[in-house]
Write a structure and sequence with these properties.
The chain is an all-alpha fold and 226 residues long. The chain has helices at 3-9, 12-36, 42-49, 51-64, 69-88, 91-95, 97-111, 119-129, 133-141, 146-176, 179-222. The two termini are 35 Å apart.
């Protein structure tokens, strides 16, 4: 994962669409729909207000020009959450739709530790290589180093536990707060945890890279002259 690109992605400019489309617009749309159309059910109002996060997801996919596994799971989660809300009549099912996806991702993430390569290896490769064949081959070669394998497995454990924690916290918010409060607090909670995980990943990857380079230099100095 490239440090410069990741830090740039956490800038104010990149966070603005999240603040507007994921927090402000859904909250305003829900309040407006409930005030202007009192007979509209909370589930319908939530579903209509959820169009703004969908727009933000589509915008991200168009900009990245790729549809990765996370984008697919999020889209499926929105559809399943909306269907569940209408079947059960419970708007809370719609409020926690993304967190059901996060819970599923946490499960997949931790289960991927049993795969030949864990989930964070593939996510890191997508973000770092831009699907360039030469860079992907170079990234794949890192797996041959024991230190790199440990780094990706540790990242996978941390992200899996982080996603699972977000899932539990979101359920607690939905069960204790009102719908308008969750529309504001929910995205702040989920995006806050995601940003914290990204920042930790950048720091951990940089420190691991530095330790690896120091170990290589030490080995080179300790090697007998040819």
């Amino acid at each position: 994962m490239t440090t410069d690109g990741s830090r740039e992605g956490l800038g104010i400019r990149s966070l603005l669409p999240v603040l507007v489309l994921d927090i402000a617009c859904p909250y305003a749309a829900y309040q407006l729909l409930r005030q202007q159309i009192p007979r509209m059910s909370p589930s319908t109002a939530l579903l209509l207000s959820g169009v703004f996060p969908v727009i933000n997801n589509v915008r991200s996919l168009v900009r990245s020009r790729t549809l990765d596994i996370i984008g697919i799971v999020i889209f499926v989660g929105i559809v399943v959450g909306a269907a569940s809300a209408f079947v059960t009549g419970d708007p809370k099912m719609l409020l926690i739709r993304e967190s059901f996806v996060t819970g599923a991702l946490a499960l997949v993430c931790l289960m991927s530790l049993l795969w030949p390569r864990p989930l964070l290896f593939f996510i890191g490769r997508d973000f770092s290589t831009g699907h360039d064949p030469a860079r992907m081959a170079e990234f794949n070669a890192m797996w041959e180093r024991a230190g790199a394998r440990r780094v990706f497995r540790v990242m996978t454990v941390v992200w899996g536990l982080g996603w699972f924690g977000e899932f539990l916290l979101k359920i607690a918010l939905v069960m204790t707060l009102t719908i308008p409060q969750v529309l504001v607090a929910g995205p702040i909670e989920s995006n806050g945890i995601t940003i914290a995980l990204i920042l930790w990943t950048i720091r951990y990857a940089n420190e691991s890279r530095r330790r690896g380079e120091e170990a290589q230099r030490a080995e080179a100095l300790a090697a007998p002259p040819a």
